[in-house]
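Field log, afternoon session.

UNIT: design team B
ACTIVITY: writing a sequence onto a fixed backbone
BACKBONE:
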């Protein structure tokens, strides 16, 4: 999509590509008339050939444009240009919660109770605002949560999963969402409601504290009504005071939807009582906004409904059919992603490595290190990324780390004589910490 860089489309000048996903490509752009940055999501061509999908997506975009909340990434516009369809979104400077969790895993350190609770609180505020307007997320996960440099959490892609995954707004039987964060009822192909979003929030909250998810997909798929699954809770490894949040997590992660919080507002109230300003700060005493009647849209209620009588033959459908459907969806998604994954991965790694040089040149040492490590994490097969990180550590007086990354460089590129010379010099103790300088021209 490099041919779009620099073009002006419907009043938006495209600056650079920042991400790719199952739905399409995300660009950073400038809204020319207002001079403000925006994110442009170009829908994947495979989606836009379906006119029914486009009608659903446009209707959903109009609905999402009314979700004006500080903890939600706002939708600005939806338009078509040259048979390509774009969604204009608020541009958020920061990183996804998924990126933060990956960095924590590399460092062996996860969130304090205050850090995790503050993020979970803000997500709950976003869910409460959306649920009051009859909008369910259905695909809440760390990759859909942005964290700004000022500690603000902003939820992305509200309601999009419903549009992508179903032919009608209320269709059950299709599994929409990311399996790792799905509630048990979603894994079984049943309809999701507000309590399904709260289960996903519970998984995210637990992962921020522990670095792992509380249940495996297979355990959830095998569970039956009335079953109980206990998640690991080790007080010795968890942050201090974590016992105060365990009852909240147990309720969020209940296997049966009617055993969870009935609403995000109830969760907020419980967090306020259990954690208070000690861990949530002043935000614990803010009151969630109440919905305006005019803002409520005519879509199905998210409240639990009595089950409809099922045909006798549906009662006999074996559990194996549900599992087969799940496997089929995963395989199809994997095949579709694989077509673009390699190019996306290489672009992401190149961008991270380049941004590392920029950050280092501006004196942001910690950020630069994180970016260099991200490039390696995304694409560990490129020798240059390992060498650049070796140069970085050498520059900042960490010869042992520099040697480690230089040796990895030589494993990938044995003919790199310059790196081999640096290793010999380091081992002989003759290399100073001033050369080579990070920031040289890219290969």
């Amino acid at each position: 999509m490099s041919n779009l860089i620099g073009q002006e489309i419907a009043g938006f000048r495209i600056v650079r590509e920042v991400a790719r996903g199952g739905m399409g490509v995300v660009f950073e752009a400038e809204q020319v008339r207002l001079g403000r940055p925006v994110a442009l999501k170009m829908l994947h061509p495979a989606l836009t050939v379906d006119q029914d999908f486009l009608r659903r997506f446009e209707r959903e975009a109009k609905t999402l444009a009314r979700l004006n909340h500080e903890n939600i990434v706002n939708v600005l516009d939806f338009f078509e240009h040259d048979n390509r369809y774009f969604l204009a979104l608020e541009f958020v400077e920061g990183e996804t919660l998924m990126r933060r969790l990956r960095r924590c895993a590399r460092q062996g350190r996860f969130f304090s109770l205050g850090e995790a609770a503050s993020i979970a609180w803000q997500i709950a505020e976003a869910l409460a605002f959306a649920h009051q307007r009859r909008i369910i997320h259905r695909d809440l996960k760390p990759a859909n949560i942005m964290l700004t440099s000022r500690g603000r959490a902003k939820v992305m892609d509200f309601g999009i999963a419903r549009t992508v995954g179903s032919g009608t707004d209320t269709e059950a039987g299709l599994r929409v969402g990311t399996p790792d964060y799905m509630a048990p009822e979603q894994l079984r192909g049943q309809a999701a409601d507000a309590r399904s979003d709260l289960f996903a929030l519970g998984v995210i909250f637990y992962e921020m504290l522990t670095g792992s998810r509380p249940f495996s997909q297979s355990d959830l798929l095998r569970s039956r009504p009335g079953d109980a699954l206990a998640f690991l809770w080790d007080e010795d490894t968890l942050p201090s005071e974590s016992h105060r949040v365990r009852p909240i997590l147990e309720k969020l992660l209940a296997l049966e939807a009617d055993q969870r919080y009935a609403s995000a507002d109830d969760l907020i109230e419980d967090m306020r009582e259990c954690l208070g300003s000690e861990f949530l700060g002043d935000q614990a005493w803010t009151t969630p906004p109440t919905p305006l009647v005019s803002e409520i849209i005519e879509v199905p209620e998210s409240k639990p409904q009595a089950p409809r009588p099922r045909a006798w033959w549906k009662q006999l459908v074996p559990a194996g059919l549900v599992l087969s459907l799940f496997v089929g969806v995963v395989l199809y998604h994997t095949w579709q992603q694989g077509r673009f994954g390699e190019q996306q991965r290489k672009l992401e790694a190149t961008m991270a490595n380049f941004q590392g040089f920029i950050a280092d040149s501006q004196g942001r040492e910690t950020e630069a290190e994180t970016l260099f490590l991200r490039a390696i994490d995304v694409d560990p097969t490129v020798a240059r990324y390992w060498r650049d990180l070796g140069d970085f550590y050498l520059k900042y007086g960490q010869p042992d780390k520099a040697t480690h990354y230089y040796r990895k460089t030589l494993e990938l590129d044995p003919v790199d004589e310059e790196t081999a010379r640096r290793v010999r010099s380091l081992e002989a103790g003759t290399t100073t910490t001033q050369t080579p300088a990070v920031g040289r021209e890219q290969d």
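LOG NOTE: The longest strand covers residues 12-21.
NEXT ACTIVITY: expression trials, pending approval
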